[in-house]
Amino acid sequence: MGLLRIMMPPKFQLLALLAFAVAMFFLENQIQKLEESRVKLERAIARHEVHEIEERHTQDGLREREAPSAAGGEDMVVIYNRVPKTASTSFTNIAYDLCGKNRYHVLHINTTKNNPVMSMQDQVRFVKNVTEWGEMKPAFYHGHVSFLDFTKFGVKKKPVYINVIRDPIERLVSYYYFLRFGDDYRPGLRRRKQGDKKTFDECVSAGGSDCAPEKLWLQIPFFCGHYSECWNVGSHWALEQAKYNLVNEYLLVGVTEELEDFVMMLEAALPRFFRGATELYKTGKKSHLRKTSEKKPPTKESSARLQQSAIWKMENEFYEFALEQFQFVRAHAVREKDGELYLLAQNFFYEKIYPKTN
Length: 358
Known about the structure:
The chain has 13 helices and seven strands. By secondary structure, it is an alpha/beta fold. It has a single domain, classed as P-loop containing nucleotide triphosphate hydrolases (Rossmann fold, 3-Layer(aba) Sandwich), CATH 3.40.50.
């Protein structure tokens, strides 16, 4: 440029500078336009990608509505391995009343002679049925069967276990009179001990076998499962295993004395099955039908005699353990107002969700 200034007249030098400035301005302008075009192109690509993602989500949502997923509970299985004389029939009637409306199947597990322990081959068959019988899903299985650990059979998705237990002496008294007089559910059916008019108190006083402390040993083995030690009366290992299973394998275990609360909490936890259960329990007739006939409460002396046994102490410890766990869950789920129980609203939310979307 210095050489041009020497060789060119001043007028031409000015023109050259102007031409250079115009060229630089034009070049910068073109660069800016290219940058703007690049930004627009990137935004267009981003919008296209977002549109594709939204389209995929919409299609996925349509597919989920057309073929409901596991998250919707369409392949869920609930097992209620009901303990005898714990209001199990009253509760099961609710499931039968709701199955048509809520669109699920109810299946009764009827074992030979009401044996709560299945053979190994029947365990395999049962696990296979529960997991692979797609036509029956969603399903509610119920029966007097002890807990069965599905993980032992290589099953990845386990069923949901629920149950109800009762004060051990109250349960035994109810069972004692049920065997002699039946109940108002099927009053014409002849029971095994029909004709025996001896009261529970008379049985305890005479040291009878039907009211012996060994007869209390039932709720622990039902929760303990299909291990030989579970059925050894008075086994401390069985007690601890039953506690472990109750906490780790069961969604919810209620108590007969607070059955309405149990129904309410199940409706909140599993609406796919139990939507409408609380109202049905309060107003339905079937739920309150089954009552043991001719039942007489035991005297304090009879209860005290049973409570001296180590077996009662263990069964009662398990009952108290289950009751405490149930009341803990309930305390964090419901509130009482004007004598009525109300479920708590959702008490958590999500925040700081990343990455951010425009």
